[in-house]
Task: structure prediction
Amino acid sequence: MIQPHESDPQSVAPAVANLDTIVSLSKRRGFIFPSSEIYGGINAVWDYGPLGVELKNNVKRAWWRSMVQLRDDVVGLDAGILMHPQVWVTSGHVGSFSDPLVECATCHRRFRLDELPGAEELSATDLRDETVVERLGLRCPIDGGPLSPPRRFNLMFQTWMGPVQDEASIVYLRPETAQGSYVNFKNVQQSSRKKIPFGIAQIGKSFRNEISPGNFVFRMREFEQMEMQYFVRPGEAAVAAFDEWLPSRRAWYEAYGVTPARLRLREHAPDELAHYAKRAIDVEYRFPFGWKELEGVHNRGDFDLSRHSEASGEVLDYFDPATEERFIPWIVETAAGADRAAFTFLIDSYREEEVRGETRVSLALHPELAPYKVAVLPLLKKRPEIVELCHRIKADLKRDMMAVYDDTAAIGKLYRRQDEIGTPWCITVDVDSLEDGAVTVRDRDSMTQERIPVEGVKQAIVDRLAAARP
Ligand code: ATP
Result:
């Protein structure tokens, strides 16, 4: 078993000491804004601005490339957010998708028990124990008032489908994408003619009425997941698939630049395992607020397909023509969050350094993840020939990648602006360019500059992007 705490939380420093550094950069440069801000905001919902949507799309694309495009054994799916309500009864979400909630008798604020100071390390058994608050002497972290015993709080959002609002028309906003993959198992397997082992990958919005959301986009009530369900033969094959997926998922974050020392694995203790899980290991990241889950890898056994078979009457089994056996496949799941991943890439890429007496802030984002791949900058915006050449270069580049033109400051400032949003390369057009037909390509991380002929500059950027691709 992987030790619950492979390393001491304090021994690895976070990439930024204070989360506010990232929150304010995100707001100022247009990565992430509070939702409905002009009305005072709505708790735990965030909007992605012009740069944030590029970053998050790139994260999703990188995940899809690694999980679907580069694999012969995984196909994609995009199921609905609303599903037949029975799905959530069968899956166990209606009965037990809940967190332990305590309430302060004085201020009536509500907290998730395991996020109270002094309760972070409680076992799953403790979290279900009605006497735990009294036993540990836990008090309200806001006003020190007495707290109620924990009660279970269901995290699913519900609404009504159709014009009548009654019990029979209740539907749920999905709290995970996985169930869409289970109920479509037969459709996908038969239409794609996949043989076991094979996987179904999905990216999409999920909703959870979290008791205590927070830490920026780490825990939201509306968020996006990137989940893959891998269907295998029962027993040993699931153990082997789990052992293959786990390191490959950790490696994915490293391949896109996350510092290896800020990643670790944490195995769920037996009393912490979800009702469906035979084994669960989280990939955790050292956030500024501690080690927290980035992604979960789960061996779910035959729980999902057996339960849906029983409840729907549709037998969700598989016939293996090679061995002439019929069985209910077991499932190994990799469950990641698109927002949490994008957040991690943002934090981990943040750099501050002294350059000639000034602080240079840069995001050393992997080029595949960077919102803009390249900026085209004029050294002298008063020279129309220089500006015109910039526009020609940019027009050519933007057919293949996100490129931006900026002439609203002196070159030093233009470079710093691009550094701060993670643009890996800047192309500068100067007076010499008009004579020698060459431009300067500046590298974000090394700050080195190279002269490249105008005709070859797009190919040079395309080649650098391809070389960086994992
Ligand atoms: P946690 O313990 O943090 O509540 P979980 O174990 O409930 O997470 P899963 O159900 O395994 O999470 O969901 C898979 C992934 O979806 C998580 O690893 C995370 O990246 C993402 N995720 C889950 N809940 C949220 C949320 N409220 N906001 C943002 N991302 C989330």
